[in-house]
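[Discussion] Sanity-checking designs against the backbone

I'm trying to build intuition for which residues belong where. Below is a structure token string of 257 positions. I'd appreciate it if someone posts a full sequence so I can compare it with mine line by line.
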């Protein structure tokens, strides 16, 4: 088994990352090129009970089926082994198996925002131009987020509300970083920041700053218990308020350029 470099992983995540990485290595080592970590388990600023552990496994193209995925029997074996790992205080472990031959319009990892646990990165890193182009594309679709999370409040049962809150996080935090990447014109630096440091870059008296801070605080009230219906609704309301302010910022920005 390959040796892992866990030196840059936040202490709370190290035993989880080590266990999960060894599972991925055990089942894919014959094709392995590199394994990296990104997100708050690397950058810091994770929210207990909310944040996940993000891993990417780069493999030789021979590892993948015609569908672009690992063979089903390997996926099943990995899931069986992962099921023995307690991800707490993180919510879950997320692993992506990626080919060394990137797909069309693929943007590589952002320098400073990831760490190689073992091996090397076989694809080009994202450039500032890549980050700026991706940010503009995503900010143009903010309306879809607002509509989606409003609609979601009309549904109930089977943990729907809990999932809505979690999915909201996966949409809102990238929106914040994309907005800041354009505002600061330094996307590579921005994506390397933990969430509190990113929020601090917003003009303090602005509605953007206030709604981002309110969302962040609402998450800390809801997690790690994640049981209060009212706290979950407050998270979604705060998230939609942030999206609305981000939409206005984007419209004003486009009028000025």
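Best answer:
Here's mine. Compare freely.
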């Amino acid at each position: 088994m390959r040796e892992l470099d866990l030196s840059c992983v936040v202490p709370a995540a190290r035993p989880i990352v080590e266990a999960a990485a060894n599972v991925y290595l055990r089942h894919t080592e014959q094709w392995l090129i590199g394994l990296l970590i990104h997100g708050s388990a690397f950058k810091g600023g994770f929210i207990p009970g909310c944040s996940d552990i993000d891993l990417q496994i780069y493999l030789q193209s021979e590892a993948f089926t015609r569908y672009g995925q690992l063979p089903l029997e390997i996926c099943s074996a990995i899931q069986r082994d992962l099921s023995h790992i307690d991800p707490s205080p993180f919510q879950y472990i997320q692993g992506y198996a990626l080919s060394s031959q990137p797909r069309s319009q693929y943007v590589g990892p952002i320098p400073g925002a990831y760490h190689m646990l073992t091996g090397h990165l076989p694809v080009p890193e994202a450039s500032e131009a890549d980050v700026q182009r991706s940010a503009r594309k995503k900010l143009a679709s903010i309306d879809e987020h607002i509509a989606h999370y409003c609609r979601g409040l009309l549904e109930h049962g089977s943990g729907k509300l809990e999932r809505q809150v979690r999915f909201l996080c996966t949409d809102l935090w990238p929106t914040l970083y994309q907005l800041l990447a354009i505002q600061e014109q330094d996307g590579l630096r921005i994506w390397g920041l933990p969430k509190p440091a990113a929020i601090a870059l917003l003009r303090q008296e602005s509605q953007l700053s206030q709604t981002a801070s309110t969302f962040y605080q609402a998450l800390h009230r809801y997690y790690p218990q994640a049981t209060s219906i009212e706290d979950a609704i407050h998270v979604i309301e705060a998230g939609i308020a942030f999206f609305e302010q981000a939409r206005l910022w984007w419209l004003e920005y486009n009028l000025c350029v």
